[in-house]
Design brief:
Nucleotidyltransferase, domain 5, 5-stranded mixed beta sheet, 3 helices
Length: 155
């Protein structure tokens, strides 16, 4: 083993054996290295393209918007026609509208929210809408947030 200074040569040694500790640490390191790529799963986000100033949107396209309110209810807006719905009825209301769209058109649903709505509720609504996409094409339905206009400073 190692040399110890002084003391009885035939007595009990009090050195700590660190080999098992190092073995355990190496095994844990390997486990973490294998598990980290699985935990770091990345979801790509495709947003609808921006329309140029001179480009007009398709007049036949259906503009679908879901507005999340503070009390948990929602307002479903289809081309300006607003319908109050509950969060439970979101999929039941949205599914037929998306299925009725032609297969070549871009399926986009905008999510708007009041300022006091928790961010978790907004993301949960977006995930719920994305769950309507088929397993084959996860990007079939695009979900986009409506941007708020920045408050202008008053002078």
């Amino acid at each position: 083993m190692g040399m110890s200074s002084g003391g009885n040569k035939g007595g009990v040694q009090s050195d700590i054996n660190v080999t098992p500790l190092i073995d355990v640490l190496l095994v844990l390191l390997i486990i973490f290295l294998v598990v980290m790529p699985i935990m770091m799963k990345m979801e790509t986000l495709n947003i609808p393209r921006n329309l140029e100033n001179d480009e007009m949107p398709d007049p036949n396209a259906s503009l679908l918007t879901v507005k999340v309110k503070v009390d948990g209810d929602m307002i479903f807006d289809e081309n300006g026609k607003e319908t109050p719905i509950t969060a439970v009825d979101l999929l039941r209301t949205l599914r037929p509208k998306l299925e009725a769209m032609k297969s070549g058109t871009e399926k986009v649903v905008f999510v708007d929210f009041e300022d006091e709505v928790p961010w978790a509720a907004v993301v949960g609504t977006m995930d719920t809408i994305r769950s309507l996409a088929t397993d084959v094409n996860r990007d079939e339905i695009k979900v986009a947030l409506k941007l708020k206009e920045p408050a202008k400073a008053t002078q």
